[in-house]
Specification:
28% strand, alpha+beta, 74 residues
């Protein structure tokens, strides 16, 4: 997994054409970062969901080696 040491609890990230995703080791960490993303007013930039607010996105949660990771779009 790619490490992201700038954001507490972030253990992986991915960049898409219209938005990015960061995965966190706890839901609490994900929710804290999601609050920052929401306060910054970040949205998807282009594509089918252009203008959709970024933030906590459970549909991108995943399990890696038996451990659940919690997703935030940004």
């Amino acid at each position: 997994m790619k490490k992201n040491y700038q954001i507490p609890g972030c253990v992986d990230s991915s960049s898409r054409g219209c938005f990015g995703i960061k995965w966190f080791d706890t839901e609490e960490s994900a929710n804290l970062f999601a609050a920052e993303v929401k306060a910054a007013g970040l949205t998807y930039n282009g594509g089918w969901y252009h203008g959709k607010a970024c933030g906590r996105e459970e549909s991108f949660d995943r399990e890696v080696n038996g451990r659940k990771l919690y997703a935030v779009t940004c």
